[in-house]
Specification:
mainly alpha; single chain; 6 helices; about 140 residues; about 0% strand
Length: about 140
């Protein structure tokens, strides 16, 4: 039982960190755990999606804090400015693509900067993250 709990926490932390401060390998961790067959796949996908979504919402929260201190959008890097403009144009649904490498974190940051509604933003981010992890898990079953 202890191995199951520590394995799930490891996956959760890997997914959380992968979506916040450092690029990570949560996809590799998930693929390994699925291929080992010691865990129920649906539980692995749910844990990874929740961890990665909470990491993305942390980045979203940083966007809110940044907007308070630096309300002028032209202070952003080109990558973040591009993401900000995309989120302005497309709205909360663009956050579905927060799972994408490189631009995903910028989209979440832009969503916070623009103060998109919390619940819809979180829901769309979770949908995107869950979809990605479900595809990865399906590939390794």
């Amino acid at each position: 039982m202890q191995e199951i709990v520590s394995g799930m926490w490891g996956l959760f932390l890997s997914a959380f960190i992968s979506s916040t401060i450092a690029p990570g390998g949560s996809e590799a961790v998930l693929a390994y755990m699925v291929s080992e067959g010691h865990f129920q796949v649906r539980h692995l996908v749910i844990v990874a999606a929740i961890g990665n979504t909470l990491g993305a919402m942390t980045t979203w929260g940083l966007g809110i804090l940044a907007e308070r201190k630096f309300p002028v959008a032209n202070l952003l890097s080109d990558k973040k400015q591009k993401a900000l403009n995309m989120v302005k144009k497309r709205g909360v649904w663009v956050l579905f693509f927060s799972w994408l490498p490189v631009i995903g974190d910028a989209l979440c940051f832009a969503g916070g900067w623009l103060k998109l509604p919390l619940l819809p933003a979180c829901s769309v981010i979770l949908l995107g993250k869950f979809s990605r992890y479900a595809v990865i898990a399906w590939m390794f079953v």
